Amino acid sequence: MNKGWPSMLWTLYNSDGDQAGSYFGAQEANRSLHAIYALDTGTVTLDNLGNTTRSGLSVESTVYNLAGAVLDDQTASNISLTSQQVRSNVLTPKVPAVTVPRTPASVYFVELVLKQNGNVVDRNVYWLSTQQDVVNWTKTLGQPQATLSQYADLTSLQSLPRASATASATTTTQSGPGGADRATIVTITNTSSSTVGFLLRADIRRGTASGQELSGDNELQSSIWQDNDITLFPGESQTLTVTWNSADLQGAAAVVSISGWNLTKFDIVA
């Protein structure tokens, strides 16, 4: 699906300079305000990596099954975090029970939405399995020692039904990093009634004025996305922003492609 989590800087980018899935994972983990689902305790942790106190915070945890139905929904409000503060055990989402080995595993999702004064500042989605942990016994200096290996049976994701989605895009003249002079705002909506849109990806490409991408290597290498590879639940929308250099169009029109693990790729005018 995506590259593994990065161990070296260059794994944040593909060989052609495109941002890999690991780029957005690392970006998410380093947001100044961040909501985390702690796999070891099954609780929600909040951290403030900034240098000022942040107040007016609320966090919502929602657990979904593979069909996108809500299994649990909890919210904690009126939270303040001082600079560099980490607050554990804010919420304890009710997730499906762990199954014994060789029992068919169930995949579920945990979505965390952190808001400040009603505005979303962080959104994090986990896809998990009822079979997650395996304890391996090894010997260290002759003494038995238990080591925990993270394991998750996610094969049920292969059976996700096709999702449906719509998208809209607006492009403006705006300076950005790396000589960019355009910014495109893309809003993606999962229009499925009971299907999760898993790992949806937007890319800016060379195309036609009618919104069809050109053949061949058509992706704009100057494009820098502020977020991507998102998961949307039925009825949810998320807005992404990308900056790019208009010279990369080489006389073509700009189009945005939308694709995903269980979404048929389609194009729209940028």
Question: What percentage of amino acids are in beta strands?
Answer: over 45%
Please name the fourth-level CATH homologous superfamily of the largest domain. Answer: Immunoglobulins
CATH class value of the largest domain: Mainly Beta
Radius of gyration: 21 Å
Tell me which oligomeric state these chains represent: single chain
Unreliable residue runs = none
CATH topology of the largest domain: Immunoglobulin-like
Molecular structure report:
The model has no long low-confidence stretch (mean pLDDT 89). By secondary structure, this protein is mainly β. It folds into 2 domains: 9-130, Immunoglobulin-like (Sandwich), CATH 2.60.40; 165-269, Sandwich (Immunoglobulin-like). The chain has one helix at 21-29, and strands spanning 33-38, 43-48, 54-65, 70-81, 86-91, 107-116, 119-129, 133-140, 143-150, 165-173, 182-190, 197-207, 224-225, 230-232, 237-244, 253-260, 263-269. Strand 8 and strand 9 (143-150) form a beta hairpin. The two termini are 26 Å apart. A 4-stranded antiparallel beta sheet has the order 4-3-6-7, with no helix packed on it. It has a 4-stranded antiparallel beta sheet with strand order 10-11-15-13, with no helix packed on it. The chain is globular and about 55 Å long.
Name some characteristics of this structure:
single chain, 270 residues, mainly beta, Immunoglobulin-like, four-stranded antiparallel sheet, 1 helix, globular
Give a brief description:
With about 270 residues, the chain is mainly beta.
Blueprint of the fold:
Layout: H1 21-29, E1 33-38, E2 43-48, E3 54-65, E4 70-81, E5 86-91, E6 107-116, E7 119-129, E8 133-140, E9 143-150, E10 165-173, E11 182-190, E12 197-207, E13 224-225, E14 230-232, E15 237-244, E16 253-260, E17 263-269
Antiparallel strand pairs: 1-2, 2-5, 3-4, 3-6, 6-7, 8-9, 10-11, 11-15, 12-14, 12-16, 13-15, 16-17
